[in-house]
Design a protein that fits this description.
This protein is α+β, with helices and mostly antiparallel strands. Helices cover about 45% and strands about 10% of the residues. The protein has eleven helices and 13 strands. Strands 1-2-3-5-4 form a five-stranded antiparallel beta sheet, sandwiched between helices. Strands 6-9 form a two-stranded antiparallel sheet. A two-stranded antiparallel sheet has the order 7-8. GO terms for molecular function: ATP binding; protein serine/threonine kinase activity. Its EC number is 2.7.11.1. It comes from Zizania palustris (Northern wild rice).
């Protein structure tokens, strides 16, 4: 038999053994966990490292491209310095800042492909509109120079008046006369404002735009093809007189005559207003502007936009609808309902007829601007029958980039630089 002391020693020995055994098990478990943790942690570390490296590379590429773009823009801006020697007034940046209250949101009138436009008030009280080239602009310095060099030489009551420009501290700005009623599309396609455009105003707007284009094509010192005639590029003064604006896409030709044709690989302008031969083949002429005017005339008569929404709702374009109603002798159904039937039937039918002549598919079939103006103002002149308007089925093949504006067939403005 064991004595009490021996039994105590046995119990203590057994406890010590169990403790050492548990300790070994704990150490083994810890080692196993550490090994598993090490194996699981490696992919996470590698993934994190890869992400960091890729992000760093992207950031470096972004910084490089940003610096390169700024260097190009700075070089282009420097090339504009000789403009200060031209007859166009040069406004200093501090004066523009003060006039626009440092480009405050309250003074912002809108934004286009060129950049934002701000209202400003000079020290003497004269109101101005400041068109500021945005760093993110789809257009660029080439269009800026084009507009400065062109509008400075053009003077007509139906063209917006350029008062000066500002080229300072990498800022490129055009200073225009301020037109309080802004653009035609703000009235024409707004259900609340369209009623303000009575027939007399609409007829006056059509005539004014036509006279402005006649000046550009035939009466100015240079032959100018605008290439982007549309409702948003027609501004209205305080008496609702129209003024053609935005000459950044215009092409200038030294030769006179109506046979000026050109071809470009960069199509610029707005789908829906584009002549078919220009949209599909890049061939443009003064007849391209005539086509755009025809579309605009039909929009002014109907109060409808020739865009994707109209195509979706009517399964045909506004031009096709106009042609169909003309053939069925239902021109009255084409007129804007907001007019309430209060219009001169003779004037309206003549505008409708001339509009259809302008949008004929073949450029050789379209009238010149001098003939357009004559047909609009002459009540005795016999008008030829219009040929069927283009179906635009081929436009489905044209891909147009998205813009920040309402996306439609005619709201997508292409603004790739096309040097003269």
């Amino acid at each position: 038999m064991k004595g009490p002391e021996q039994e105590g020693e046995g119990v203590a020995g057994s406890s010590s053994y169990r403790f050492r055994h548990r300790r070994r098990l704990m150490d083994a478990t810890t080692a196993t966990d550490s090994e598993h943790s090490s194996h699981n942690g490696m992919p996470v570390m590698v993934s994190t490292l890869v992400v960091v490296i890729v992000c760093t590379l992207f950031y470096c590429v972004y910084c490089w491209r940003w610096r390169k773009r700024n260097d190009v823009r700075r070089a282009q801006t420097e090339s504009l310095r000789p403009l200060s020697n031209s007859d166009l007034p040069i406004m200093d940046l501090s004066s523009v800042y003060e006039a626009t209250n440092h480009f405050s949101k309250e003074n912002k009138l809108g934004e286009g492909g060129f950049g934002p436009v701000y209202r400003g008030v000079l020290g003497g009280g004269a109101e101005i509109a400041v068109k500021r080239l945005s760093a993110r602009s789809r257009q660029g310095v080439a269009e800026f120079r084009n507009e400065v060099e062109l509008i400075a030489k053009l003077q007509h009551r139906n063209l917006v008046r350029l008062l000066g420009c500002c080229v300072e501290r990498e800022e490129n700005m055009l200073i225009y006369e301020y037109l309080p009623n802004r653009s035609l599309d703000a009235f024409l396609f707004d259900s609340r404002k369209s009623a303000q455009l009575d027939w007399k105003m609409r007829h006056n707007i059509i005539l004014g735009i036509a006279r402005g284009l006649l000046y550009l094509h035939e009466d100015s010192c240079l032959k100018v093809i605008h290439r982007d005639i549309k409702a948003s590029n027609v501004l209205l003064d305080n008496k609702m007189n129209p003024k053609i604006s935005d000459f950044g896409m215009a092409k200038i030709f030294e030769e006179q005559g109506n046979e000026v044709n050109s071809n470009t690989s960069h199509v610029v302008g707005t789908y829906g207003y584009m002549a078919p031969e220009y949209a599909m083949e890049g061939v443009f002429s003064v007849k391209s502007d005539v086509f755009s005017l025809g579309v605009l005339m039909l929009e002014i008569l109907s109060g409808q936009r020739n865009g994707a929404m109209y195509l979706r709702d009517h399964q045909q374009t506004l031009i096709q609808d106009a042609w169909k109603l003309w053939r069925e002798d239902k021109a009255a159904e084409f007129m804007d309902a907001s007019l309430g039937g209060s219009y001169s039937r003779e004037e309206a039918w003549r505008c409708f007829h001339v509009g259809l002549l302008c949008v004929q598919e073949g450029p050789e079939l379209r009238p010149t601007m001098s003939n357009v103006v004559l047909m609009l103002i002459s009540h005795q002149m016999q008008l030829p029958e219009p040929a069927q308007s283009p179906l635009f089925t081929r436009l489905n093949k044209v891909s147009a980039p998205e813009t920040t504006k309402t996306q439609s067939v005619n709201d997508v403005s292409i603004s790739m630089i096309d040097p003269r």
